[in-house]
Each structure stands twice: as C-alpha cells, then as structure tokens.
Design brief:
Elements (H helix, E strand, L loop, with lengths): L8 H10 L5 H13 L12 H10 L6 E8 L2 E7 L5 E8 L4 E4 L3 E3 L14 E4 L2 H13 L5 E6 L9 H12 L11 E5 L3 H8 L8 E5 L5 H7 L8 H10 L8 E7 L7 H11 L6 E7 L13 H13 L4 E3 L5 H4 L9 H7 L2
Parallel strand pairs: 4-7, 7-8, 8-9, 9-10, 10-11, 11-12
Antiparallel strand pairs: 1-2, 2-3, 3-4, 5-6
Helix pairs in contact: 1-2, 4-5, 9-10
This protein binds S-adenosyl-L-homocysteine and iron/sulfur cluster.
The site of iron/sulfur cluster (SF4) has 11 residues, from loops.
C-alpha cells in the first residue's frame, strides 16, 4: 500500500512522472491535501478525471484507523490503530491561546527511562512518516480550530527514528505542506548525541525547536534513571548543546522531570544551575512534576519543593518554568503514553 503522505514534494513529482503524469500535478494534489485537507482524489476538481482515477488506484491517504477519542476539559486523547494492529496515541492540548498536538514517533520506546510508562513494553517499531503525519491530519480534521504547535513528545524517541521524523517534520513546516512555523514544531529527545550532531548539520531539523530531557544535573543520577546516558554521557551531551547552531532569539529547552527524593533537592537545583551557568542564555528549563503511574515506583514531589527548586534556578539567572502536563487526571499525559492492554481488548472484540 502506497501512502501519499510518505512523499515530500520532490519525491512526489518523481513518482508522478513515473506514473506518466505531469510533474506540476504533484504540487496541485499536495495543495488540496495540506491546504484544504481534502483526502479524496475525486474532489480535486482541477485534475482531469482519468488522472484522478489513476491516483485513486495508486495512493491511500490514511495509514491509521481512528479508534477512539477521550475528552478532558483541556485536552483530548486520540487512539489510532496501525495496519499491523499497534495502538498509537496522540494528544491535543488546549493552551491559553492555541492548540498544541503531541504526536508519537514510535510504538513504545527502546530508551528505557525508569520513570516513563512508554518504556515499559520496550520498542515495538518505528512509525512511518505517513503514520506520524496522519496523526496531525486526522486530529486537525476533527478540530474546529487550526492546530498551531506540534511537539514530538508522545510515544517514542524521535531521534531514534530520525529519517521518518525528518520527513514528517519537513512536510509540517514546508510552504507546500502544512506550513507550520518552524519554531512551533518541537523535537524532544532524551539526548542521543550522535543524532543531535546530525541534527545540528541538517538544514530542516536544525531550524525546529529543540527540547532535551535532561532530568538530572549529574552523570550518576542521570544514569540511574536514563540507561542511554552510559553511552550518551552528560558531558558529551552538554558539549553538543553548547555548540548547537541556534536561530536568533531561540533557546534550547531542557526538560527536567522532578521525582520525589531522587532529583528534586536543593543540591540538585544548585548543581543544575552550576552546569548551565556559563551558557545560561542558551537554555530555558521546564520543570515537569512527575506524573504518577501505578506501574512506576516513583512519586511526585510536594508543590513547595517544586517551587523551591525553581527559585534556586531563578536566583542564579536561569529562566525556569513549571509545566504540569495537561489531562493527567483523566488518562495520563503527553510524555507518558502507553496503549493500555485492556483497551486493545475492548477495541478488538
Ligand atoms: N522520548 C522523548 C520524547 C517523549 S517523552 C524524550 O524523552 O524527550 C516527553 C517528555 O515526557 C520527556 O521530557 C520525559 O522526560 C517526560 N516524561 C516521561 N515520563 C514522565 C512522567 N511519568 N511524568 C512526567 N514527565 C514524564
Ligand atoms: Fe523513551 Fe522519552 Fe520515555 Fe525516555 S522519556 S523512555 S526517551 S519516551
């Protein structure tokens, strides 16, 4: 099965030529698809009828099947099924003045962070770029308002699925595609150093917003909760980030999940401030109080402890914000998604 959302403009032009169509028809079709969200060739009225029929026989639009939508006051979770039976989760979040879509890049995750529900079952497989993009298309079609921001913070480690994430992001930010602002598409990574180096040299990827999940101010603590740090050491990671080519007025976001009695002490905050001191203009810190999960052995710190942690950083000149994930009470938030087995049973009677 061939999905049109797996092609960027250039590739689609070539594919159209191989089908005997004129090159410029590719641009026409993508305009219908990404500007008007038309997912039906027969409505593309500026194409000759026989071409529309050929396209209908050749391409499909949606690799994902929408199973369900769960609504909370400030967010919605969508569940999709892939052709091979995997469940993909996507969360639409209402922020103060815009909508943000949290997309998944993999089914599961191989990185194995001990505080993350997505890690529990390991990695099943990478999502294709069409599967990543289809999360956007299907949710956008279901929403009255335009989605302004996309964050790769759903299931999976986006940089472990580099090529497919890159293609999906290219389609999201290109003028011939969804035409989202590059600073409003955020790739969040646990800090894969080699892929970050690749990203720094990549004209599409380096323009996107970058978030790095730091989660601890020193190697030993980081290693105890993020096994990938044994190879991707904190010092190597910081070296890449300090050199990372940032567009003007842009900062790298450092995410820090605050876990009770593990990484939330005053000393942790002070060491984090020290780690960032010389480059504090380059970074901002998002503190995310841990979202509890019955399968995970950690707790969320008290709010005063979170605020004290933030205060230490502010006093040392580091912009620091507290981010509570939305929709936590209803279904577990963005960043800790895990398709529930019981759900799969219900949906596959
Ligand atoms: N794999 C990527 C992106 C997906 S995780 C990454 O790790 O950055 C998105 C964010 O959710 C990460 O910052 C991660 O640290 C955070 N997260 C994971 N589990 C969490 C939990 N139980 N509570 C709060 N945040 C969590
Ligand atoms: Fe994977 Fe991110 Fe979860 Fe770590 S926090 S296991 S990298 S999804």
């Amino acid at each position: 099965m061939e999905f049109i959302t797996d092609y960027n403009l250039e590739e689609l032009r070539e594919r159209f030529v191989s089908l005997g169509l004129e090159k410029y028809r590719a641009g026409q079709v993508l305009k219908w698809l990404y500007k008007k969200l038309t997912t039906d060739f027969s409505s593309m009225t500026d194409l000759p009828k026989e071409q529309r029929r050929l396209l209908e026989d050749t391409f499909r639009f949606h690799p994902l099947e929408k199973l369900d939508r769960v609504d909370a006051p400030d967010s919605r979770k969508y569940l999709f099924r892939t052709h091979d039976g995997h469940i993909v989760e996507t969360v639409l979040i209402r922020e103060r003045d815009h909508l943000t879509l949290c997309v998944s890049s993999q089914v599961g995750c191989a990185v194995g962070c001990t505080f993350c529900a997505t890690a529990i079952d390991g990695l099943r497989r990478n999502l294709t770029s069409a599967e990543i993009l289809d999360q956007f298309l299907q949710v956008q079609k279901d929403s009255p308002e335009k989605i302004r921001n996309v964050v790769f913070m759903g299931m999976g480690e986006p940089l472990a699925n580099y090529d497919n994430v890159r293609k999906a992001a290219e389609i999201m930010v290109s003028p011939w595609g969804l035409d989202l602002s590059k600073r409003r598409v955020t790739v969040s990574t646990s800090g894969l150093v080699a892929q970050l180096r690749r990203m720094a040299e990549d004209p599409i990827m380096r323009e996107l917003n970058l978030a790095v999940s730091l989660n601890a101010p020193r190697q030993s603590t980081r290693e105890s909760i993020m096994p990938i740090t044994r190879k991707n050491t904190l010092s190597e990671l910081m070296e890449v980030l300090v050199k990372y080519p940032l567009p003007r007025y842009r900062r790298i976001t450092l995410e820090y999940v605050l876990i009770k009695d593990l990484n939330d002490s005053k000393r942790d905050a002070e060491e984090l401030a020290e780690l960032l001191r010389r480059h504090r203009k380059r970074f901002k810190v998002n503190l995310i109080p841990f979202n509890p999960d019955p399968n995970l052995p950690y707790e969320r710190p008290e709010l005063t402890r979170v605020l004290n942690f933030q205060k230490v950083l502010w006093e040392r000149g580091i912009s620091t914000f507290v981010r509570f994930s939305k929709g936590v009470d209803v279904f577990g938030a963005c960043g800790q998604l895990r398709a529930k087995r019981d759900y799969v049973k219900i949906s596959n009677p």
